[in-house]
Design goal:
With 401 residues, the protein is mainly α. It is built from 14 helices and no strands. It has a single domain, classed as MFS general substrate transporter like domains (Growth Hormone, Chain: A, Up-down Bundle). The relative contact order is 0.16. It is a multi-pass membrane protein.
């Protein structure tokens, strides 16, 4: 892996920058609501429209990356993210009623993001021949993704201290950093697939892949979506709770939001290093992680101290961190290179679906007590255990999960 360290660094910048460019808005949503006079549901759409747009565009970017090449999709996509960020930044800075134009900019960002992070996963799979190296590489990518989640509430809160729309202005800068790193450092190996392969032949290959692997693929898609739904539901509610119930704002709020995410980041890194190419271990980590998340969320109560709340949410984040690198490895190592881009794009779409659903559903549930919110999230985590038991059953001899 030593000869690919700079490639991995550049690729890891994409999930890091993309996560910063999205999750940094979570701690400042209450401030945005106040500044432009919108409801909590409307503010949640700033997160959700980005994700919904990405969901619709990811399969297209996955197919095009298989056909034209990974780097040829990633660089223009990152430029589009920068353009969308510039639109939202201009609207928030110059307009008295900026909400609709902010959403338009976020939609453009969503289109660009569809060809950024989702294409990173198959790119890592293309770079290495040994499955253990792929798992380690994906662990680094997932760690960068979760590191972005750790840093985003802190950076978002600090930027908002300067002026409320500064997080919007940072998006083009972050995107351009990734553009330069990918352009100069990433050397993607060519796959054996010919560029003139017809769509009908390509589609036949995809159908064959799902025919033989549909059970475990759909299970991994489902689990990825649920994990993101739980994570972003927790973060959205915690952000509001810190401000409304504990009266914490600014960088202090950002630091406390980062605590559960720091545990998630550390666990993701360790999980990626430990699983290797052992699919039985991957399944075990998913089950243990889902169980830990479920139990932790069940015990969250509205009247508990902040210390206990952060302890339980950090425990739940450890569970999520255990599972995520295992899903990445299963989906990347279990699919042939020729179809890897499109198949991993379906997985990324489900993760974005979870990101999109988490904040608005949590906002609607916030009309009830906190225990109701966390009961719903714990139930969703419990579904992961059932899905993994039924849908992921790797044998010791088969390469398929």
């Amino acid at each position: 892996m030593e000869d690919k360290k700079w490639d991995l660094l550049a690729l890891a910048s994409i999930p890091l920058m993309m996560t910063l460019g999205n999750s940094m808005f979570i701690p400042v949503l209450p401030l945005i609501e106040h500044e432009i006079n919108i409801t909590s549901f409307q503010s949640s759409l700033i997160i959700s429209v980005y994700s919904i747009t990405a969901i619709l565009c990811i399969p297209v970017s996955g197919y095009l990356s298989d056909k034209w090449g990974r780097k040829k999709i990633m660089v223009p996509s990152l430029l589009m993210v920068a353009a969308g960020g510039a639109v939202s930044a201009f609207a928030s800075w110059q307009l008295d009623q900026p909400y609709l134009l902010i959403l338009l900019g976020r939609i453009v960002q969503g289109v660009g993001s569809a060809g950024a992070f989702p294409v990173v996963l198959p790119t890592v799979g293309d770079m290495f021949k040994q499955e253990e190296q792929v798992s380690r590489g994906l662990g680094i990518i997932e760690t960068a993704n979760t590191l972005g989640k750790v840093l985003s509430p802190i950076i978002g809160a600090l930027l908002a201290v300067l002026v409320w729309y500064m997080p919007f202005m940072s998006v083009p800068v972050l995107s351009m950093i990734s553009v330069f790193l990918v352009w100069f450092l990433v050397k993607v190996p060519r796959t054996k697939q010919k560029e003139d392969k017809s769509f009908s032949v390509f589609l036949t290959g995809i159908k064959k892949t799902f025919l033989f692997n549909g059970r475990w693929l759909c299970t991994v898609f489902f689990i990825g979506g649920i994990l993101m739904f739980v994570l972003f539901g927790v973060l959205f509610h915690l952000s509001s709770l810190l401000e409304d119930q504990y009266h914490l704002k600014g960088y202090i709020k950002g630091l406390l939001l980062a605590v559960p995410l720091l545990f998630l980041c550390s666990t993701s890194y360790l999980s990626g290093k430990l699983i290797g190419e052992n699919r039985q271990k991957m399944r075990g980590f998913i089950l243990i992680g889902a169980a830990l998340t479920t139990v932790s969320l069940v015990f969250v109560r509205e009247d508990m101290t902040l210390l206990w709340l952060l302890t339980l949410l950090s425990s739940a984040s450890i569970g999520i961190g255990l599972a995520l690198p295992c899903l990445d490895a299963l989906i990347t190592e279990g699919i042939e290179k020729e179809e890897r881009g499109l198949v991993t794009s379906f997985y990324s779409s489900m993760r974005f679906a979870g990101v999109a659903a988490g904040p608005p559903i949590t906002a609607l549930l916030m009309k009830h007590q906190s225990s109701v919110i966390y009961f719903v999230l714990a139930t969703a985590s419990l579904l992961i255990i059932a899905a993994a038991f039924v849908g992921i059953r790797p044998s010791k001899t088969s390469q398929s999960p």
